[in-house]
Amino acid sequence: MKRLRVLVLLHEEFLPPDDIRGLSDQEIHPWKAEYDVLRTLEELGHEVRPLPLGDELAPIRFYAQEWKPHVIFNLLRDFHGIGIYDAHIISLLELLRLPYTGCNPRGLLLATDKALSKKILGWHRIPVPAFAFFRRGQAVRPRKKLPWPMIVKSAVEHASLGITQASIVHDPEGLIERVHYVHERIGTDAIAEEYIEGRELTVGILGNLRLQAFPVWELTFQKLPPGSAPIVTERVKSDLDYQEKLGVRSRRARDLEPALEEQARRIARRAFRALSMSGYGRVDMRLGADGRLRVLEANPNPDLCFGEDLAESAEAAGLPYPALIQRILNLGLRYSPPWKAQGS
User: Fold this and answer.
1) Relative to the CA of 257, which of 56, 69, 181, 318 has its CA 20 to 30 Å away?
2) Position 159 confidence tier, pLDDT thresholds 50, 70, 90
3) What's the CATH architecture for 197-333?
4) CATH class of 128-194
5) What is the CATH number of domain 5-103?
6) Contacts of 27-34 spanning 24+ positions with Cβ under 8 A
7) Is the pTM value of this prediction over 0.85?
């Protein structure tokens, strides 16, 4: 295997320390993916440099010119605190003619915009929940015949930002109140989609043109308080103690009919292609009580922590964590953006 110069692009607040001895799991949690990826790249024998990025873009150009990395390993989640701006950072890498890991700019923009992505998936006849879109700055007028209950989210933000149990609404008054919350507290457009009671399934995808779908994974809540819905709130996402309190478990989906599991994997591959994604991703869906699958969203560049959904499902498919990281590197090097297609 060729030894590569790998520049790891990450947020400055998530730069992990060299030594994590004595730190609790909760202290490690915010930057665990960065630590796992950096350590694994080094163990694979690559020459690795982290580039902690703040609000300036100049360091990218500097490192590109001075160190000449073979590939950029992208671990950014946003820029200037805005989720959709990560696509613009990748556009800059393409303009600088730098290979990078993960999703391309078009796929990032399409998949991150929850309303637009649902329209695209629906056009491709990929099942999605019914939804309504509410632009920030405009009056909130609920449509007639909305399928109650609904769940209200930011239309563009990641990591369950702003999602709580109160995000599930049962009438127009609750919808208006929660949409205003997203507009004012999160500062983004809002989307309200049909809340589907059922099993929370995810399918990891790896590839550019030829796609590998990993085994279906499931998120369960084994100690959920009465009256609470099994949804991934912002607190569930970020607080390990709260996860333990609710008995949150992620594991291979059990008792799925083989035909249904293959259908979920096929839908995930179709969604990945329809949204022009590349590299690696995760497609989240719900299996309703009616036995139908509906895609909730497609996540480009999902969590790469060792032990999380993508890594665990890859391992179940025969791809241990170091091999997964190397495959992601290889896919970044093989991806063909327009500047490569022009033979430059």
Assistant:
1) 318
2) low
3) 2-Layer Sandwich (3.30)
4) alpha beta
5) 3.40.50.20
6) 29/238, 29/240, 30/238, 32/305, 32/306, 33/75, 33/303, 33/304, 33/305, 33/308, 34/8, 34/10, 34/75
7) yes
